[in-house]
Amino acid sequence: MMNSLGLDSRPQDTRVVVAMSGGVDSSVTAALLAAEGYDVVGVTLQLYDHGEATHRKGACCAGRDIHDARQVAGTLGIPHYVLDYETRFKEEVIDRFAESYVAGETPVPCISCNQSIKFRDLLDTAKDLGAQVMATGHYIASRSLVGGGRALYRAREEERDQSYFLFATTREQLDILRFPLGDLTKAETRQAARRFGLAVADKDDSQDICFVPQGRYTDIIEKLMPTAADPGEIVDLDGKVLGRHNGIIHFTIGQRKGLGVATGTPLYVVRLDSHTRRVVVGPRDALRTRRIGLRDVNWIGDGRLAEALDAGRREVFVKVRSTRAPQPAWLSLGSDGCEIELVDGEDGVAPGQACVFYDAPDGQARVLGGGFIRSAVAMTARSSIDTSTIASARPAG
């Protein structure tokens, strides 16, 4: 008879490693599994130590949070280990984050952390500890498929859904990963924390970019790559110079405020050219994107991707930003890899962001996979420029 984690064994005979960040979500995950009688082992990763960041409200995986995770483990009576992953985290997440920004992209470091640190390195550690399963406090659901294997689904509470950050999870990883909070609301999670007597029940949620002191990511980038703040020109779509800037890392696609130029009409950042260090601005309609090229695509729908494309393409629903709702699109394979055609278009699509596929526009839709945006083609004639060369270029000098 299958246990609640989908394994054919008694809970007490099933070892589960829980990734404990020191927050309420992972703490409740450990508490729920321990209450069911599973052999729970808590593991906390020391990921960074940037002084001020370790004491900042909303930080995770450093300083106070390690103490909180240890305290929760003590309350639950489960073993707890702290592993030093600082070097790996810097190389796989922080350095790549900086490189991506300097290249004119808009990276999502939480995806890199899940992809390389938590679901690769930590998963290997869980296996070394003899665990059959590794559980995390992410708000996403994992369920068994009728024909075998497992699938990912959006969380019950739409506002808490974290599927955008987990699209790169592979089928092999899904066999071992579990997400007990996927069918809970945040309010229910906090109620459970109080019921278990956990000191973190009312602790603030962690921030998206956990390793950035005071939320100033440019400080980190300039420290790692001093030339990242080299000045350049602000130009319009025709190449006319409108002003100067103090580094493209201070700008993002779609930005309107703080451009430092005035023409009498609203202007938005349309492109970032890392090779020439130019910030290209234009009207709002120049931001509207219809076609997107993807790289590093991960498909976790049924079968192989090529087989899943009916007549060369497939209707999906995609998110190009974590805060936006899925919208209808067509997924196909082009000469340069996977391509997305947005039915209604989207504003402010930037290289480096993720594009995540779903089988439905709302509810607990199944996650079909996704990829990183390599290029974006705007809908207006004047700005129909493929940004793939811009996004992959590196600053001169």
Mean pLDDT: 89
**Name of the CATH first level of the largest domain:** Alpha Beta
Q: Over the alpha carbons, how many angstroms does the gyration radius reach? A: 22 Å
CATH architecture of the largest domain: 3-Layer(aba) Sandwich
The helix content, as a percent range, equals 10-25%
**SSE pattern, N- to C-terminal:** EHEHEHHEEEHEHHEEEEEHEEEEEH
Q: Describe the biggest sheet?
A: 6 strands, antiparallel, barrel
List the helices and strands and how they pair.
Blueprint: E1 15-19, H1 24-35, E2 39-46, H2 64-76, E3 80-84, H3 86-102, H4 109-128, E4 133-135, E5 140-144, E6 150-154, H5 171-174, E7 177-178, H6 186-195, H7 217-224, E8 232-235, E9 241-245, E10 268-273, E11 278-282, E12 288-299, H8 305-308, E13 313-319, E14 327-334, E15 337-347, E16 354-358, E17 366-378, H9 388-392
Parallel strand pairs: 1-2, 1-4, 2-3, 4-7, 8-11
Antiparallel strand pairs: 5-6, 6-17, 8-9, 10-11, 12-15, 12-17, 13-14, 13-16, 14-15, 16-17
Task: Walk me through this protein's architecture.
It is a single chain. The chain has 397 residues and is α/β, with parallel strands linked by helices. The protein folds into three domains: 11-214, HUPs (Rossmann fold), CATH 3.40.50; 228-285, Adenine nucleotide alpha hydrolases-like domains (SH3 type barrels); 288-392, Elongation Factor Tu (Ef-tu), domain 3 (Beta Barrel), CATH 2.40.30.10. The chain is 23% helix and 27% strand. The chain has nine helices and 17 strands. Strands 12-15-14-13-16-17 form a six-stranded antiparallel barrel. The chain is globular. Mean pLDDT is 89; it is low at 50-56 and 381-397.
